[in-house]
Amino acid sequence: MSTNQMKLVLGPVLFNWPNDIWSDFYARVADEMPVERVYIGEVVCSKREPFREQAMGDAVERLQRGGKEVVVSSLALVTLPRERHKVFATAQDWPGLVEANDVTAVAALAGRPFAVGPLVNVYNEGTLKALAGFGAKTVCLPPELPLTSIAVIATAAAGLGVETELFAFGRVPLAVSARCYHARIHGLHKDSCQFVCAQDLDGLNVDTLDGEKFLSVNGIQTMSQTYADFLADIPALKAAGVDALRLSPHSCDMVAVAKLYRAVMDGAHDGAEAAEALKALIGNAPISNGFLHAVPGARFQLRTQA
């Protein structure tokens, strides 16, 4: 794949946004956001899906009219028969790329082109080669990888004709569990959760017993409390052979965030200066790029030392 024309893509909304906010967001993405590809669909909790079906169709149509490539994302943790049936139905019905976020979807999509999400563990060239053999055409690498490993996998991906994507903005998706943390915090069971996760548009912060900022939770998902910020690292990521950067939707002005990334990718803005501008957009939330630099993931290091 080409390393000169880096793409900017938008990941799926991971949070339980109310339908009106969700629909307005994708309308603005279609009309204003400078991204080539948009991933859309429920990744975290299958209980949210029925409320999104009508809005989903409308959003896909709007995005396609706006010239975006639309990729439908699948669930990250498939545990129930109805969830497995949904994954296989999506694989059968959607004519474009489907994003596999666990191996159930890989099985459903094998033999046709598909995308691989960051929650599938692609930590080496062997795994990448196996997925390419099933039909993977683009792979978003796990966010825990350091730059040295990214470069090795990106080189292997280029040889296989696979596009390498990297999670570059937003709270880092770290894990999913069969338990719902949001319901538990509110004294509810998972089956009668009352969708309390919708109260926190960017996830619920979790601090340590000593009061230190630690993680955030989003239903059954564990995320970083920091926001990934790779703006100053874009030149190094280009040199490493990364083909595309993924922005993860949050409640801040995502169009402005995308424009910052696009400006740095196009060489029109300095990455370090853009990183300062980003802080204002995210309300001075803590930022990080530690995994990329092979230091603790919650840290931020200004320049990549490849």
Automatic annotation (TrEMBL):
Forms a heterodimer with UbiU. [4Fe-4S] cluster binds at C45, C180, C193, C197. This is Ubiquinone biosynthesis protein UbiV. The keyword Protease applies. It holds the Pfam family Peptidase_U32. One of its GO terms (biological process) is proteolysis. Pathway: Cofactor biosynthesis; ubiquinone biosynthesis. The lineage of its organism: Bacteria, Pseudomonadati, Pseudomonadota, Alphaproteobacteria, Hyphomicrobiales. Its cofactor is [4Fe-4S] cluster. GO terms for molecular function: 4 iron, 4 sulfur cluster binding; metal ion binding; peptidase activity. Belongs to the peptidase U32 family. UbiV subfamily. Required for O(2)-independent ubiquinone (coenzyme Q) biosynthesis. Together with UbiU, is essential for the C6-hydroxylation reaction in the oxygen-independent ubiquinone biosynthesis pathway. HAMAP family: UbiV. Keywords: 4Fe-4S, Hydrolase, Iron, Iron-sulfur, Metal-binding, Protease, Ubiquinone biosynthesis.
